[in-house]
Amino acid sequence: MSVPLLDVNAQNRPLEAELKDVFAKVLATGRFILGEEVEAFERECAQYIGAKHAISISSGTDAILVALMALEIGAGDEVLCPSFTFFATAGCISRSGAVPVFCDVREDDFTIDLAAAAKLITPKTKAIMPVHLFGQCCDMDAIRAFADEHKLIVIEDAAQSIGATFKGVQCGNFGEVACFSFFPSKNLGGFGDGGLVTTNNDALAEKILKLRNHGMHPRYYHQMVGGNFRMDALQCALLRVKLRHLDSYAEGRARNAAWYAANLPLPEGCKAPAALENRGHVWNQFTLRIAGEGRRDAFKQHLAERGIGCEIYYPVPLHQQECFADLPASDCPVSEALSREVLSIPVYPELVQAQLDEVALAVAAFAS
Ligand SMILES: *Cc1c(COP(=O)(O)O)cnc(C)c1O
């Protein structure tokens, strides 16, 4: 039995009839841009996350970009972000005209290290973009205190972590603005690209609504230069169906992570991830850390040969990416070590016991 890293069909198949109904309904309305389904999805997301405003956006990447545009972060500004994250975090900072300043990450949860960040503050530092990595919130007490001390705007990159909590509060409520993704591999996985921003700031929400639609208000009058950052009505309608199951998906992921924690016969020098105190982890990834020269790569090959899906998130930290070669050098030893040592294994909610057993067997075969 092979175990893929992710099986979107296993999740969508039980919803097939309902999804087809919803598709047919939107098809019949002939209304594909903005409108009722979009507004309903946004209302339901705001309610789920517990934020005042939720605005659907064309992708998680565009959500970050439009958030930066709305906050008027751009040329002359610096934005602190972790080096160990998906590219979009820093790519959007760069595209806004601002400079991404790469900070190292913590050993315990792989999120931005504030001691490292403190050394990188300059008069140009305008914002900090913590990333809730792999389904676990950053320590938002520490980040809020840091941001207040240095007068920084907080933009949460919550793309991987919808539903994750810190001290019982969901991510999406800690920053000036937060950005989510519905890329199919995220916890609320869509049928194509999609994203969301949340904010509790009325004026900012209004600005993002305009920026999403060419800065236009009213029709054909442009107060600012926006773009087309709209999410399709069809996508919103389909995701409304899946949003109702998001808690049960998170429970399934947590169940699998707990099973691994109790039953994976980890090889020497291999560490399993853990939920830290005060965090409600939603386990977008279950990421092992395997120390020792070349051992992670050997482990990856071993699992792949046994039909266990696995992937390296992320093989190159952002401060070492070619496109950022012109930026000042960064000192991120933890990020560099992680890029050599991490390996994510299947944790998606539809895994069945036989598949978990299969993963454990394959892991054991490497350990011996
Ligand atoms: C997926 C992801 C994004 C981008 O989301 P898309 O919807 O793929 O554009 C941004 N940041 C992080 C940390 C992500 O994992």
Automatic annotation (TrEMBL):
<keyword id="KW-0808">Transferase</keyword>
<comment type="similarity">
    <text>Belongs to the DegT/DnrJ/EryC1 family.</text>
</comment>
<feature type="modified residue" description="N6-(pyridoxal phosphate)lysine">
    <location>
        <position position="186"/>
    </location>
</feature>
<dbReference type="Pfam" id="PF01041">
    <property type="entry name" value="DegT_DnrJ_EryC1"/>
</dbReference>
<dbReference type="InterPro" id="IPR015422">
    <property type="entry name" value="PyrdxlP-dep_Trfase_small"/>
</dbReference>
<dbReference type="InterPro" id="IPR015424">
    <property type="entry name" value="PyrdxlP-dep_Trfase"/>
</dbReference>
<feature type="active site" description="Proton acceptor">
    <location>
        <position position="186"/>
    </location>
</feature>
<dbReference type="GO" id="GO:0030170">
    <property type="term" value="F:pyridoxal phosphate binding"/>
</dbReference>
<dbReference type="GO" id="GO:0008483">
    <property type="term" value="F:transaminase activity"/>
</dbReference>
<dbReference type="GO" id="GO:0000271">
    <property type="term" value="P:polysaccharide biosynthetic process"/>
</dbReference>
<dbReference type="InterPro" id="IPR015421">
    <property type="entry name" value="PyrdxlP-dep_Trfase_major"/>
</dbReference>
<keyword id="KW-0032">Aminotransferase</keyword>
<protein>
    <submittedName>
        <fullName>DegT/DnrJ/EryC1/StrS family aminotransferase</fullName>
    </submittedName>
</protein>
<keyword id="KW-0663">Pyridoxal phosphate</keyword>
<dbReference type="InterPro" id="IPR000653">
    <property type="entry name" value="DegT/StrS_aminotransferase"/>
</dbReference>
